């Protein structure tokens, strides 16, 4: 499991509006890559292009290349559904399926695709995924209760369990902690540290301490002004970005002088 | 370390936050007194009548309660009481026709409403039977079984036609529809919601006249007419329900590699199913009492017809209409009128039952939130 991603000169458009311009980067396998930057600079837009989730938004399109272990995500005849089975995603707000129990939520990736599972197999997946998301001990006695009855932090970990149940190569996280309290945030940061043993993780965050704590490499995005496209300013090892960045704007941002 | 906080000294001067207040029970007392005064005034001016009693009571209550509040509590409270009186009065007036309809239907319909009424048809019942029954020489006979059966068959068929079309249309509008086509569908659905029901009936009658010959009337034609009325209601209510399904759920499913159609079938529709089901039930309740389109498409009959694809078929509204407008016996129409009222009562009971079913469905299918 886990594959690397190489992005080559990627432009993202909403209709005719250029939202993100000229991004090239390499995301290493089995590592955590953090995207930081001020609001509206295109971090979330960009992360969505890594599993073609931006196509859900009408009018959104990309130019450029995204290679998953050398295979172009935007090549001819590539089905976005197949892409998303390899590149999972966790969203800003926890979004468990309200009609399903905790167990069914974890199995949603298989059940919604009508993959037949033997009960023992399904039990294994549920236990492995929930343990992987550090949620097993809290919910093992109430797997048949609705997922929406959990607390916000538990719901978010349930969503992570759901995402890793289908064993993706890459896990994208779009501000996974911004709706959570510090204790739940800590739980999820610990979890990210464990998950990187097996997965390639990309995380968007507004919390610079979080980026410093969890990530191996950090990419700083910025925007010149309203209506201008967002750009990748700098990408480097996290320690370097936070101690000795090579671009002035990065230093200003991470030291809190703006943004 | 403990910090002792001294309780604030009780202010000697009255608080600037406090105002004069009437005792809590003032409104109730004024209400009782105004009802008494209203009764008295009504009796004084040209004899007691319920209408003048109600109007005078409300007037007295509004004036006294507002003035009292104005004198003691100030302008803001007075306006509050005045507007509260208006709101309650409007609510009461809105209830009057509703209660009056239910009461008169119950009162008049209970006379003939019985198991016998629900299980017999009008076949071979004539004006002579009614006259004999009035003279006490024979029991009252004749019921609405054929009409109830017809109503269930026709409405059931209409539901079978409308729900798939309506639900799929709303799914198209919410999940796929973009641009001009979706906008024009929405526009025409809105127009169709306002179609007079007789037009729907004439459309179905004309359609069947073209397809199967002029004068073709059967239950199925009635069902087609009703679905013309029902489809826009189903589209509208399901569309609203599908739109309030959070986009995040769709994205969650897409991110798991679930194709769009499976997302719709397995996530979006189940999340909205309680609202859709109760919307459908209310749409059924809306068309079950339609009269005009059934008269021109399904016709009248006094016999039981359980085949909606051939011969005329009675329905409850048409039964009420025919019993009320064309009594069996011209000289003694009361038994027919009683039958009409009893059929109206049956119809109201069916609508009420449908509403209860809608609530039950909404509760049963609602997403669970328990811990």
UniProtKB/TrEMBL annotation, chain A:
One of its GO terms (molecular function) is ATP binding. Residues 5-248 form the ABC transporter domain. One of its GO terms (cellular component) is membrane. This is Phosphate ABC transporter ATP-binding protein. Signal peptide: none annotated. Keywords: ATP-binding, Nucleotide-binding, Translocase, Transport. NCBIfam families: 3a0107s01c2 (TIGR00972). InterPro entries: AAA+_ATPase, ABC_transporter-like_ATP-bd, ABC_transporter-like_CS, P-loop_NTPase, PstB-like. The keyword ATP-binding applies. SUPFAM superfamilies: P-loop containing nucleoside triphosphate hydrolases. The keyword ATP-binding applies. It comes from Jiangella aurantiaca. It comes from the Bacteria. One of its GO terms (biological process) is phosphate ion transmembrane transport.
TrEMBL record, chain B:
Residues 148-358 form the ABC transmembrane type-1 domain. GO terms for biological process: phosphate ion transmembrane transport. SUPFAM superfamilies: MetI-like (SSF161098). Pfam families: BPD_transp_1. Keywords: Cell membrane, Membrane, Phosphate transport, Transmembrane, Transmembrane helix, Transport. GO terms for cellular component: plasma membrane. GO terms for molecular function: phosphate transmembrane transporter activity. It is a multi-pass membrane protein. The chain crosses the membrane at residues 25-45, 51-71, 83-106, 144-173, 185-212, 218-235, 264-285, 340-362. InterPro entries: MetI-like, MetI-like_sf, Phosphate_PstA, Phosphate_transprt_permease. It is found in: Cell membrane. Belongs to the binding-protein-dependent transport system permease family. CysTW subfamily. Part of the binding-protein-dependent transport system for phosphate; probably responsible for the translocation of the substrate across the membrane. This is Phosphate transport system permease protein PstA.
